[in-house]
Amino acid sequence: MWEIFSSPENWASLLTLTVLEIVLGVDNLIFLSILASRLPIEKRRVGRRLGLGAALITRLGLLASVAWIVTLSQPVFTVLDLAISWRDIILGVGGLFLIAKSTLEVHHSVEGGDEFGPKESAKVPGLWSVVAQIAVIDIIFSLDTVMTAVGMSDHFPIMAFAVIAAVCVMLFAAEPLSRFVDAHPTVKMLALSFLILIGVSLIADALHFHIPKAYLYFAVAFSIGVESLNLWATKRLNAKRAAAKRTVE
User: What family does the entry list (predicted)?
Assistant: First the structure.
């Protein structure tokens, strides 16, 4: 098995696939962070790690089922001259699930975030419920990346190493990202809006209206840039107010 790593081309393929898995895993990482934030504080780290572990298992399982994955693109029935495959059905259902879940999270943030409201009445999801949701949505997110990986490499070990490396990076990034999202409600709302946008793109893809991911990532990057300026300006304003208050005192 190890002889495949003696080729520079295979190393280039491994590096490319790893970067691709990390970049395309950002949306999954955001979803994971937001779901884990609904858990009790003492269970959040365990929830994130179990979620990423489940994601790793599902991705490796999909890679090992390459022949089956390819058959998902074959049409199973036609509606109004639109050939529908199992891949289209999975993407459509996944998009609807993502939109519904993100919308519920937005509602929870708006209606349940009142500091004077009865927080005790908010329903806290179970640990395994959160892990199961992460695993399910990871399957949706992983379909296209697995197909891309199969197209870029003929060696299962290279694809598997790329997936493992990407999940390890996500494991280290999950906790800082979760803390940042929890500390900034506007960033959380932006992340949820991004997930709704991803859900819309999945449904569009299921209906054969492909929206390039580059457009989505550009829109998100622009929004993050604007929000970063907003956070920076707010921080400076608060610092000036604190300094002025100390001067008066």
Answer: Belongs to the TerC family.
